[in-house]
Amino acid sequence: MNYTWKLTSLKRKDSSDLKNIIVQTYWEKTGTDENGNTGTFVGATPFDLSTVDPSNFVKYEDLTEEMILSWIQSVVVGTYEEHVNERIAKQIEEKLNPITEVYRDWE
After folding, report:
1. Confidence (pTM)
2. Amino acid 41: pLDDT
3. 59 backbone φψ class: left, alpha, beta (φ>0; ψ -120 to 50)
4. Which pLDDT value is given to residue 100?
């Protein structure tokens, strides 16, 4: 499975010392199997304003998508990452083998 990440939106907030601190991110992780079938997990990752280190702060205008995605990827690890990847695989499986719901009047 080949995975790609995409930042879809974010929220920012000011503190007394710093401006435009990223406090919430929204993202997608898409998996593509060897046959080109895809599944996408949509996630949200918050960042606590109180944990910002002013000495290592990057101004909002200097941030890149890759930087922010690296922050998210450092949180989406272990069992959380396994869950995300399982949901992507399940989505692909459901596309390949859809379940059809049928309504029937039994009377």
Report:
1. 0.86
2. 98
3. beta
4. 83
